[in-house]
Amino acid sequence: MTPLAIAFFLLAVVIVWGGLVTSTLFLRRRPERESFPPGGHDDHREDAAPIEHDT
After folding, report:
1. Which of 10, 33, 29 is nearest to 21 (CA)?
2. What is the pLDDT of residue 54?
3. How far is CA 23 from CA 13, 15, 44, 46, in A?
4. Residue 32's pLDDT band (boundaries 50, 70, 90)?
5. What letter would DSSP give residue 44?
6. Which of 7, 22, 24, 38 has the fewest beta carbons under 10 Å from its own?
């Protein structure tokens, strides 16, 4: 392998594993979302069926 190929390989490894480590640390620090948009929580409505639209 040429030095250029090794450099690109190391760059790709750092990007992939660095992203994995960063996302893991972020999810450990903030595991759940603190606020949800309206309708995001289960409000226990008794809907009979999915919404039907006229087309």
Report:
1. 29
2. 76
3. 15, 12, 32, 37
4. confident
5. -
6. 38
